[in-house]
Amino acid sequence: MKMSIYWPPLLAAVFLPAMAHAGLPRLNATCPGKIEVHADKGGPVYIDGKEAKFKKVNENYFEAKGSGVTVSISINPDGSPDVSYTGKHGRNGVCQLADTAPMEKPHTNESSASHNGGANARARDNLPRLNATCPGKIEVHADKGGPVFIDGKEAKLKTVNENYFEAKGSGVTVSISVNRDGSPDVSYTGKHGRNGVCQVGDKTPMEKPHKAESSSSQMVAVADMPRYCAGEASAKFHKRPTEITTKPAVEDGGMYIVYGEFPSSGRDPAVFTCTFTKAGKLVEVDDQ
Questions:
Q1: pLDDT digits (tens, 9 = 90+) for 223-272
Q2: Do the Cβ atoms of 97 and 27 come closer than 8 Å?
Q3: C-alpha–C-alpha distance, residues 246 and 241, integer Å
Q4: Tally of CA atoms within 13 A in the half-sphere of 55 that contains its CB
Q5: What is the pLDDT of residues 104-123, one digit of tens each?
Q6: Contact in structure between 177 and 161 (CB atoms under 8 Å)
Q7: Burial environment of residue 118 by CB neighbours within 10 A (0 to 12, 13 to 18, 19 or more)
Q8: Is 288 exposed, middle or buried (0-12, 13-18, 19+ CB in 10 A)?
């Protein structure tokens, strides 16, 4: 009797260290703190010499977890990679690539390349018009669908996926993520690991992308809840990600709770909680 196996949708996003991913190039990189990263073409990825758990987010974006850090690898339109990392207590930075010679571009015919270009163009339509000010008085302006300007100069814009964009210029990287309600969150990473949350100025011109209600709910894996909670808390309380600490999610009455804190004006830290449903949907971020 022939058997068919059904893979639930959530299993498509789990980390599969043994699976090969054709879009991942061979690379070596060094991240701040002398964290060494090596990737074979198609995987696996090694962090400080140990094989990491590997996840393909989309055709041009990958994540590897191991040795207490998460390494992000994004592929530019010309086939070259950008590598960054996030460590404990919100530490993060851009990694320096060592050897780019062995990298190979995926072999595509003209029609598939045209298709990918069209997909990127459609995804870029989700980039809203915005003005934001980052720490250090770094001014950011984005037109709807691009381009993005940093301190008045046009930046190099990259579409990671339909809800996440990066702009590089003037010595900084600006990250723009589009929330479920269509509003943007903006942050930056500068030299020597400096980073922070940018204050968005005018929200009135922004337009929400038309999406079905069922696709607007993001489900978060239990292991990823602390990091997701920290990002939501950073936006709500206007704190830098490096100032926020979160604990592992705990199950409580059919829900998952993540406890976090950040420095306050008083002697004791400010405490907050993130509540998730059993399925992994964020319900609320609440200060205590």
A1: 989 988 888 888 888 877 778 899 999 998 899 999 999 887 777 888 99
A2: yes
A3: 11
A4: 16
A5: 333 444 444 444 555 566 66
A6: no
A7: exposed
A8: exposed
Residue with more model confidence, 22 or 85? 85
Q: Is pLDDT above 50 for 162?
A: yes
CB 32 within 8 A of CB 84: no
Q: Which pTM was predicted?
A: 0.35
The dihedral sign for the CA sequence 106, 124, 282, 202: positive
**Contact 47/37 with Cβ under 8 angstroms?**
yes
Name residue, tokens 């990392």.
85
Kindly report whether the peptide bond that precedes residue 248 is cis, defined as omega within 30 degrees of 0. Answer: no
Question: Three-class SS string for the chain?
Answer: CCCCCCCCHHHHHCCCCCCCCCCCCCEEEEECCCEEEEECCCCCEEECCEECEEEEEECCEEEEEECCEEEEEEECCCCCEEEEEECHHHCEEECEECCCCCCCCCCCCHHHHHHHHHHHHHHHCCCCCEEEEECCCEEEEECCCCCEEECCEECEEEEEECCEEEEEECCEEEEEEECCCCCEEEEEECHHHCEEEEEECCCCCCCCCCCCHHHCCCECCHHHHHHHHHHHHHHHHCCCHHHCEECCCEEECCEEEEEEEECCCCCCCEEEEEEECCCCEEEEEEEC
- The answer to whether residues 146 and 157 touch, using CB atoms and an 8 Å cutoff, is yes
